[in-house]
């Protein structure tokens, strides 16, 4: 993991020594890939095994997930967890409020309209291409730009500050940005965002796994 092998268009093979940071990123990406593949394999085996004993199409599912997180210092991990909770909140709103009211209306049942907080704008801020928080982060990695975390924060500010109701920055200069979630405002520290999201595997590591 301390070198990267690249084959050029003319068939030449280049061996490039990685810096300490690059080697660390390669190691982390390698570990995350193996973990993800093993997790998917185990879940697939458990599902296929349990399906052999369950003939009914009806089932009871249990979803276990971290609750909404606000830590003394919030980083990329907290953003991912809170993003998942935003998605779950939207599903709750849709099935409990929107679909139920549509069903009552279709059946001619008169009910009072229930007002609820729609978090779609917050979800768009986080995930909607091309300017969402996540797409902008992925773009810096896919284009292989040597963007620093601080430069990424500047991109976020330039794209969303005073343009999106769910985005803000702290009053004093810092390495943080604020997302206004349905559960409250959360300040995220930008340090480590690019490194934690960079899970691209070098082709020679993929060849090692295939061997």
How are the SSEs placed, and which strands pair?
Blueprint: E1 3-7, E2 13-17, H1 20-53, H2 76-106, H3 120-127, H4 133-142, H5 149-160, E3 167-168, E4 176-181, E5 184-189, H6 193-197, H7 203-210
Antiparallel strand pairs: 1-2, 3-4, 4-5
Helix pairs in contact: 2-3
Q: Can you give a write-up of this model?
A:
The chain is mainly alpha-helical and 211 residues long. The protein has two domains: 1-58; 63-210, Methane Monooxygenase Hydroxylase, Chain G, domain 1, CATH 1.20.58. Helix content is 51%, strand content 11%. The protein contains seven helices and five strands. It has helices at 20-53, 76-106, 120-127, 133-142, 149-160, 193-197, 203-210; strands at 3-7, 13-17, 167-168, 176-181, 184-189. Strands 3-4-5 form a three-stranded antiparallel sheet. Strands 1-2 form a two-stranded antiparallel ribbon. A hairpin with a 5-residue loop joins strand 1 and strand 2 (13-17). Helix 2 crosses helix 3 (120-127). Belongs to the TRAFAC class myosin-kinesin ATPase superfamily. Myosin family. It comes from Aphanomyces astaci.
Largest sheet: 3 strands, antiparallel
Helix/strand order, N-terminal first: EEHHHHHEEEHH
- How many DSSP helices? 7
Which parts are unreliable, with pLDDT below 50 for 5 consecutive residues or more?
none
Strand order of the largest sheet: 3-4-5
Number of domains: 2
CATH fold-level topology of the largest domain: Methane Monooxygenase Hydroxylase, Chain G, domain 1
- Class by alpha and beta content: mainly alpha
CA radius of gyration is 22 Å
Strand content: 5-15%
The CATH class designation of the largest domain is Mainly Alpha
Overall pLDDT metric:
86
């Amino acid at each position: 993991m301390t070198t990267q092998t690249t084959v050029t268009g003319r068939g030449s093979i280049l061996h490039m020594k990685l810096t300490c940071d690059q080697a660390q990123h390669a190691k982390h990406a390698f570990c995350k890939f193996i973990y993800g593949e093993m997790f998917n394999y185990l879940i697939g085996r458990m599902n296929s095994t349990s399906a052999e004993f369950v003939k009914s199409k009806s089932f009871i599912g249990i979803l276990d997930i971290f609750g909404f997180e606000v830590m003394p210092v919030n980083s990329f991990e907290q953003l991912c967890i809170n993003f998942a909770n935003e998605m779950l909140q939207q599903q709750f709103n849709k099935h409990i409020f929107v679909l139920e009211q549509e069903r009552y209306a279709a059946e001619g049942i008169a009910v009072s309209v229930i007002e609820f907080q729609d978090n779609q704008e917050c979800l768009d801020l986080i995930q909607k291409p091309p300017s969402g928080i996540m797409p902008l982060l992925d773009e810096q990695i896919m284009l292989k730009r040597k963007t620093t975390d601080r430069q990424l924060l500047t991109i976020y500010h330039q794209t969303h500050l005073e343009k999106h109701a769910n985005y803000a920055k702290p009053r004093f200069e810092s390495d943080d940005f604020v997302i206004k979630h349905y559960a409250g405002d959360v300040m995220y520290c930008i340090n480590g965002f690019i490194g934690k999201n960079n899970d691209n595997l070098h082709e020679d590591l993929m060849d090692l796994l295939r061997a």
